[in-house]
Design a protein that fits this description.
Keywords: Signal. By secondary structure, the chain is mainly beta. It has one helix at about 1-15, and strands at about 20-30, 40-50, 55, 65-70, 75-80, 85-90, 90-95, 95-105, 115-125. It has one domain (about 1-125): Immunoglobulin-like (Sandwich), CATH 2.60.40. It is elongated.
Length: about 130
């Protein structure tokens, strides 16, 4: 059983690169303008993407992101993997990703809006058939 499990894990990890698809997505949020009395606003935005049927979102390479554009303070990008599916031998793989952006307006008086635009990149690949192990 341990040998089969190792072979199954090797098959999952060593899948050919051509079976992997790279996806690029953006998410952004924009705050209201800072008021004339200095009140700042925040915003949060998120988008959830699901891998096609029979595919999973890879953890290696892990999803990556960068802040493409920002103004204000507390500009953040992050993601959460979800929709875990058991593919056998107790192995669970994520089938969805939620990408998120957060911003806080700039300090001062009537200084304008804050925003964050995040570029995300993630991969998905075919769920291997482990039924023969």
């Amino acid at each position: 059983m341990k040998k089969r499990l190792l072979i199954g894990l090797s098959a999952l990890i060593a899948m050919p690169a051509f079976s992997q698809v790279v996806v690029n997505e953006d998410v952004e949020c924009t705050t209201k303008g800072t008021s004339i009395v200095g009140k700042r606003h925040t915003c949060d935005s998120s988008e959830t993407y699901t891998a096609p049927s029979g595919h999973f979102i890879t953890k290696q390479p892990s999803p990556s992101f960068q802040i493409a554009s920002s103004n204000g303070a507390d500009n953040r990008c992050h993601y959460e993997l979800g929709g875990y599916k058991n593919i056998g031998f107790g192995i669970e793989v994520p089938t969805s990703i939620t990408i998120k952006a957060h911003a806080k307006g700039p300090g001062g008086i009537a200084t304008g809006r804050g925003w964050t635009r995040c570029n995300f990149s993630y991969n998905y690949r075919l769920i291997p058939d482990l039924s023969g192990f």
